[in-house]
Structure to design on (480 residues):
């Protein structure tokens, strides 16, 4: 039962705290990876469409196989329970491939943040943490999303472009742990061959810098073989309205925002100063 | 983590899609938060959610109500999905009255959410805006498919599965409700809206 992904145990907490702490030390030892047991697989192909990356195909022997390059270790195939003969198995996975699972598995809690998922609390708890203040703006560059996935070499192009502007990456975000140098945004050599479902470089800056940040992101977006979904976090005016500077800058840059958004409605306590 | 941001769709479609998220702030008010998170879930359940879940346990379709309620933790992140503003507003009202001290985030059409918040006496504090998808957009699937898959911010809902299930509905192999529930089940957090999914599947099938 230790390796059953939807079963939370004390052991699991220990593993994930260990993973993140070890990320900075390049010594990840024990995490899990998906495998299809060819002896068990009956070739029904039911599992194929469940993979968000399309990484499961049928072999010439009419067995389902996982393309290891495309697989981002999200375990959606396993968790779907679609296999009629339980052919999916989990085996131990070593660093650096283990970073794929760290960025893909929703149930997992990151050791440093105690937050499940691949990012941070960002504005969701801003009423309590005061992470973003009036006059500041936070950006989340959700790389590989929606559903494309991203090679970490492409993620690095973005982090390096941002680092050139002197942004300070969110220290609690898992991608920051993979940086060799947060001042340059360069990732550690050994992880550059990996591909992840999504990773989210996060940072905040003075609102006046919004324009140059957007320009840099636009430029680097044309150099990557993937996509990113861009989000920005702001503290609202005391009357609940969006700061005019933000709206004006987006208008000047001809950047539209989705009609739907996340709004922290201010019920958290104690309220941040 | 931005899992209820970037939900793609038309304004008309998004008018049936409102998500409430409740969570403690780690290092601030997380100690002893588990019963408050259960309280938040119980409030969500009072207002006709079409899906709900806890990131620590899973979604309703996979785990069932009892298991989710009984396993809230100090770092739970709970969600409820609503199809109309009335349910959203009544849920916000009860959350306000309960004064749990947990942060509450409402995802939905900006004007609607802000009007609803003000109507129940709340002033929006912070926002997370989606500035859309940048980069090599030719890698993306069709827009209708994205309108479903982007409801799961962790992208546990596969575009291939959307197409397969739409095809099965078209061939009368399964009903549209079952297809939508199967898709919603893949989203661990429980933030995929199965009712909205049905409507989008109808559009895909018509094409």
């Amino acid at each position: 039962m230790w390796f059953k992904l939807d079963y939370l145990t004390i052991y699991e907490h220990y593993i994930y705290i260990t993973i993140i702490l070890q990320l900075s030390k390049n010594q990840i030892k024990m995490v899990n990876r998906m495998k299809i047991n060819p002896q068990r697989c009956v070739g029904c192909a039911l599992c194929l469409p469940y993979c968000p990356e399309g990484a499961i195909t049928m072999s010439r022997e009419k067995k389902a196989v996982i393309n290891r390059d495309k697989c981002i270790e999200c375990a959606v195939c396993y968790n779907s329970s679609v296999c009629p003969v339980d052919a999916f198995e989990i085996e131990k996975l070593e660093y650096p491939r283990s970073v794929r699972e760290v960025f893909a598995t929703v149930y997992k809690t990151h050791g440093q943040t105690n937050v499940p998922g691949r990012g941070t609390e960002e504005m969701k708890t801003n009423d309590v943490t005061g992470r973003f203040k009036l006059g500041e703006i936070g950006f989340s560059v959700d790389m590989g999303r929606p559903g494309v996935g991203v090679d970490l070499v492409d993620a690095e192009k973005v982090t390096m472009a941002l680092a050139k502007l002197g942004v300070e990456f969110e220290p609690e975000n898992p991608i920051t742990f993979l940086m060799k140098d947060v001042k340059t945004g360069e990732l550690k050599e050994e992880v550059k061959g990996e591909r992840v479902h999504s990773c989210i470089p996060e940072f905040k800056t003075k609102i006046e810098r919004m324009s140059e940040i957007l320009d840099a992101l636009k430029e680097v977006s044309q150099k990557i073989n993937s996509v990113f979904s861009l989000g920005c976090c702001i503290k609202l005016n005391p009357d609940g309205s969006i700061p005019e500077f933000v709206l004006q800058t987006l208008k000047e840059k001809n950047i539209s925002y989705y009609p739907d958004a996340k709004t922290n409605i201010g019920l958290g306590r104690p309220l941040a100063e | 983590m931005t899992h209820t941001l970037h939900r793609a769709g038309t304004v008309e479609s998004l008018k049936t899609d409102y998500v409430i998220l409740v969570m403690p702030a780690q290092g601030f008010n997380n100690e002893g938060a588990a019963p408050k998170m259960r309280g938040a879930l119980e409030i969500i359940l009072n207002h006709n959610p079409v899906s709900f879940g806890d990131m620590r346990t899973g979604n309703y379709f996979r785990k069932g109500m009892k298991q989710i309620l009984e396993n809230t933790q100090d770092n739970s992140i709970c969600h409820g999905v609503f199809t109309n503003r009335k349910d959203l507003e009544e849920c916000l009202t009860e959350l306000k009255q309960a004064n749990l001290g947990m942060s509450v985030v409402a995802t939905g059409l900006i004007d609607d959410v802000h009007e609803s918040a003000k109507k129940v006496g709340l002033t929006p504090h912070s926002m997370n805006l989606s500035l859309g998808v940048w980069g090599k957009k030719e890698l993306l699937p069709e827009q209708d498919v994205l309108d479903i898959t982007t409801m799961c911010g962790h992208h546990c809902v596969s575009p291939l599965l959307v197409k397969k299930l739409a095809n099965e509905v078209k061939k009368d192999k399964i009903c549209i409700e079952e297809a939508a529930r199967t898709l919603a089940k893949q989203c661990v957090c429980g933030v995929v809206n199965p009712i909205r999914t049905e409507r989008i599947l109808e559009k895909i099938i018509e094409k």
